[in-house]
Amino acid sequence: MEKRLVLAVVLMIATVFIVNILFPPPPPPQAPAVTDTTALTPAATTDTAEPAPTQVRERPPPQEPAAPTGTDLPGVVQPDEPIDEDTVWVEGPLYRIGFARRGGRVVSARMLEFESLAPATKGEPVEMVPAGAETFLTHRWLVGGDTLDFSQQPFEISPADGLTLSEGGGPGSLTLSYQPEGVPFRFEVRYTFRPDDYVIDLEGRIDGVRAAGWWAVGLGPGLKSNAWDPEEDYESNLAFSGRGPEGVKTQKVGDVEAGQRVMLDGPFDWAAVRTKYFVTALVQTPEAEERSRFGGLAITGLPDPYRASAFASFSVPRDGRFTYTLYMGPADYGRLSEVGYHLEDVTPFGYKWLQPVLRPLAGAITALLVWMHGVIGLSYGWILIVFGIGIRVVLFPLYQKSMRSQMATMRVQPLMKEIQEKHKNDPQKLQQEMMKLYREHGVNPLGGCLPMLLPFPILIALFFVFRDTIEFRGVPFLWLPDLSRADPYYIIPVLMGLSIFLLQWISARSMPQSNPQMKIMMWVMPIMLTVLFLNFASGLNLYYATMNLASLPQQLYLAKERRAAAAQPLPAKTAKAKT
Questions:
Q1: Of 29, 34, 43, whose CA–CA distance to 73 is shortest?
Q2: What parts of the sequence cross the membrane (predicted)?
Q3: Which of 94, 105, 222, 438 is most open to solvent, judged by the fewest CB atoms within 10 Å of its CB?
Q4: Are 370 and 471 a contacting pair, CB within 8 Å?
Q5: Is the backbone peptide bond immediately before 305 cis, with ω within 30 degrees of 0?
Q6: CB neighbours (10 Å) of residue 321?
Q7: What is the pLDDT of residue 421?
Q8: pLDDT computed for residue 523 by the predictor
Q9: How far are the Cα atoms of 44, 70, 495 from residue 250, in angstroms, in the given order?
Q10: Which ranges of the chain have pLDDT less than 70?
Q11: What is the pLDDT at residue 55?
């Protein structure tokens, strides 16, 4: 039974960490080649306008438009010289966001509650927008083969001196408008900010022409990493994604080569760009019609490493008005869930086939740890120690029942061997006699395994909690610089391995019979798990080591009980059966 238990544990761990390596998700299909488009004129807009489709599915998403050269509208030419940025700032308790007059794009988004961990900017507020980003929340209008690109046009921004949001105050709006001189056309986009939320309302309108075609909003060249190791963050986590009826589709930026074009086909309820801990997402509003879904994400690789330009497209309504929700902030599970449309799925929490179980379990564990941190007032390191002890206390009755079930099985092993030898050529009779033996002595052959496996779903969920949850980002404890990163001195994983060895050593000493295989596993399993956990989050190791150490008193008690039970004579029924 002990050997089967150890084998079950090893297979569980191996399955979780190896299946996704052996069966990685297929890469998304590449978009067909995109041809350059000509500039859009008001006449073309009016004459070639077509009725807007009733559903996004009825019309394929557009390819990424090429930026037009020359004239955008009659009488309006591209500026000969770069337009002064004239950055206008929106400042509040949570963030500081800068909008440039040229293109109306976002040039800076600083998260004031979070410090950068990157070596070059350590201690500064997190900056989400990469330096030199030209397409972060810029706009393009596509009708047929024509494109009107607003990314280089001068916008009027009102109020011109920006916004200041006060804690506990009401929302504020910033309006960006573009109206070429002498042309009956106007585009306006308004952002409404709340001082206590990362959710921003986005409202756009087109006046002076008949609305049709597709609108494309830029998600920039990706996000700027503020992690300890930015390159690792870019390689593993920087990605564009969208969620629709078929689930989440994701394209890692590191897998897109310069000049390569990839299309994530919609329809999508939201389109986003993320790093490990921060997200920018466009989400359709709850009252939106079916056709307001995003048609797709067009992604083009850029020459700079880990950079790709992406545009999310949607069909333009007949009245030229569109409304979306913009989320720009931390990948906080609770905040993302409140936005709706399962925006929390933007973070690939665990392996896809395990997500239905892991997400609710991890969400509950995270909520419990955050609640304990707020109520008890201790640091997260001590909270994990309390949590590990608490889990062991809660599981104490089940663990004790498991050990006693194993002891009962061990006591009848001599009779089990006799029955197996007697009926080795009659499997049916063997099974009947074995079940009769179990009933006579109250033995449950599975009672010793299940309770011992209960902590492992929690352990697996905590693996992803510490890997992906922002609450533990950059949280120090004693000598550990960050509970979400590995122990730099490997003290905790070694302590965890020693605790596993000690538990097995105590258990082996109380066994009535020596088992060579168990002796081998007593050495191999702690070493194997220590090596496996060396580079895992130190918070995970801290929890596991604490839970093991909290098991020592119970293990000593059960070992004493096991030795006492082994010294007792066999039950009367067993003794009679043997004679």
A1: 43
A2: 6-23, 380-399, 443-466, 489-508, 520-544
A3: 438
A4: yes
A5: no
A6: 13
A7: 78
A8: 82
A9: 36, 35, 38
A10: 1-85, 350-352, 402-413, 441-454, 510-518, 562-579
A11: 31
Which of 151, 58, 52, 157 lies closest to 101 in space, CA to CA? 157
Which of 202, 211, 210 lies closest to 316 in space, CA to CA?
211
105 Cβ contact partners less than 8 Å away, ≥ 6 residues apart: 99, 133, 134, 135, 136, 137, 138, 151, 218
53-79 pLDDT per residue, tens: 323 333 344 444 443 333 333 334 455
Q: What is the pLDDT of residue 261?
A: 94
Structure tokens at 118: 């990157």
| Sign of CA pseudo-dihedral 282, 94, 157, 153 | negative
Alpha-carbon span 226 to 294, nearest angstrom:
29
Tokens for 427, please give them.
Answer: 């499997």
Q: Which two tokens stand for residue 463?
A: 């693996």
Residue 447: predicted pLDDT: 52
Q: At what angle do helices 396-411 and 413-422 cross, to 10 degrees?
A: 50
Tell me the C-alpha distance between 173 and 202, whole Å.
10
Name the E strands within 239-371: 239-244, 247-252, 261-268, 270-274, 278-284, 294-301, 308-315, 321-330
The 3 state secondary structure assigned to 341-404 is: CCHHHHCCCCCHHHHHHHHHHHHHHHHHHHHHHHHHCCCHHHHHHHHHHHHHHHCHHHHHHHHH
Closest residue by Cα to residue 117 from 235, 225, 232: 225
Is the CB of residue 180 less than 8 Å from the CB of residue 76? yes
pLDDT of 182 reads 77
Amino acid at the residue 438: Y
What pTM was computed for the model?
A: 0.75
Closest of 144, 151, 191, 157 to residue 172, by C-alpha: 191
Q: How many CB atoms lie within 10 A of CB 219?
A: 25
**Which residues contact residue 520 at a Cβ distance below 8 angstroms, ignoring those fewer than 6 apart?**
none
Q: According to the model, what pLDDT value does residue 43 have? A: 31
Domain edges within the chain: 2-18+359-395+454-570, 31-347, 404-451
Cβ atoms of 225 and 275 closer than 8 Å: yes
pLDDT at 4: 45
The CA-based diameter of the chain, rounded to the nearest angstrom, is 111
3-state secondary structure 410-433: HHCHHHHHHHHHHCCCCHHHHHHH
Q: Show the tokens assigned to 209.
A: 């022409």
The CATH code of the domain at 31-347 is: 2.70.98.90
Rounded CA separation 507/499 (Å): 12
User: 202, 185 in Cβ contact below 8 A?
Assistant: no
